[in-house]
Predict the structure of Frizzled-8.
Amino acid sequence: MKFLEFAWFGVFLTICRARKGTISTPIKLKVEASSPTSLRLTWDPPVVSPNSLMGYSLVFVPVQTQHKRRTHVELFINQFNLTNLRPGTRYRIKVAPLMNNGKLRGVYSSWVKVKTLTDNKNASSQNRDLTDQSPNSPQVPSHCARIRQVCENIGYNYTQLPNYFNQRTHDEAGHEFSQFTRTIQSNCSKVLHVFLCSLYFTPCANDSNTVTPPCRSVCRAAQRDCEPWLKRNGFGWPYKFRCSSFPDPSDKTCVSDDGTITQVVEPNVVPKKCDPLNTDMCKDLGYTFVQMPNFFKDETQNEAKLRIKEFYPLVQTKCSPALRFFLCTLYIPPCVINVNEMIHPCREVCEEARRGCEPIMLRAGFHWPDVMKCSRPDFPLNRSGFCLKPNPQNPKATAVSPTQSHCQPLMIPYCRSLNYTSTILPNLLNHTSQTEVNTTLASKEMSLLMKSKCSQHLKRFVCFLLAPHCTSDGKPLPPCQSFCEKVKRDCANASCHWLANLNCAKFPTLSRKRLCFGDPLTTMDCVGPHSRPCTVISSTFPIILKCSPPAARFVIDEVNINLYNGTHILMSSTSDVLRECNGNSRSVNGRYECQFSVLYSKYGISAQTVNTVTVKYHCRKT
């Protein structure tokens, strides 16, 4: 049971620098302007008490707006690049340690004031905010000219020819641009002006052959907003403006929705001695990169994997919740950025593992290895030096049953068209894997049942039965008893023994204490007083949310930005995306849909570091 506590709630790696007293703040916070749109931050790690350090909370504020922005920095990084900032803008920045309970410990460091660069001297690509000087100034390339009045105040001041459409004179570009004057004046979109100006009056670049187009997201926003207005006036969205032809800011420099020029910033580079973790036994322990050689002088992870396999039978006995962590930090040690020496597990971890597992080893005729004796100076006490230990276990974990399953991504093609993305197994028919479910769906009897179309709800019922939706608290939501009975009645003449023999009595009935999928009430579509929030995970924009009638108003409960490095950033406010979502809600195939995007730069996040965005929402009647 203790081992399951350890596995279910996860173990986060922490560096424990033991001293009595309270935690100190990070010291010597240094900030350097590295380009017109980015700042490089470094700081010294704090001296911590036995409490576990989870990471850092970073706050930065543009001095002019005083609008605070916050981001999370993972544990083993004490340097960070803030990107997508405004050139020539003053910022105030501070940082504080973040503890394993999600709360700050101690106080923030002192504010550090810094200003981003105002010219292109240290930037890797073109300047977006050239100063108001003549074209002959050394800071303005000779092939650039002051931007036309129709595009003033959009985010950059100088333009160049030829433009995106290879037009070589300002008169030619201005004449075609004027065709869209009425559309701009309609105010159908707040980004249309920037979109058109970046096409016809391209931002100035150091190289006259370099054309900076608008970003794909800007095009999509302009098309989404203005296409209805164009259609009402007898026009369509021009083919030459097809959004698929414009770049994504993570791939190529482009003009964003506020006229700023995005920078393609290289991600933080992991030290050369570190390699990705590929040892299954050591996954889910809080780190994803390893550093070799290890405690036993193995030079490669493959060598270490062969040696740690000897302990696999002992780990399987679950003799101690600390054993797996102890072995992995010795054989497959984590890579700690900015620390050259290997950090060993704490003595308390060694003693807990030995206390639980040595009796089993003795009964099998083995002794605890001398090289792992807990009294060795290699395993320091938590209060006397740097060492590694797992997160304190949650006492509520004792309620986890030995058969507890976990949510897993829905990989069944037949069911992925429905509005859910995660499932949990085993199901009510005791299928233990999605492969078994796919085999059942591909069977001849099931294929004939699907082709019969005996019930309009058949697909939803089959998917909810074979691949039940996994809720945010890790529980399955099976079909309701009444839903099962309705589908059986509809398909009574389908000659399907599998469905005819299905006992609907074993399915739950919908109540405040027991949730299930029913028709027309489906918690999948977040309708009704008993529903749980839906969860949508998207890797592309726009993000699409769906609800079934009679609910037509969306309520966004939570938006999480998930980075490739494992960091999860919770948006402090959902008001902007909620306004955008309900502002363009529409009926599609009998359901209500809304679309919205997330402006990463508002949260100090580089788009190329983002893996997915998770949205939790529900619906209400209007």
Summary: The domain at 27-115 is CATH 2.60.40.10 (Immunoglobulin-like). The mean pLDDT is 74.
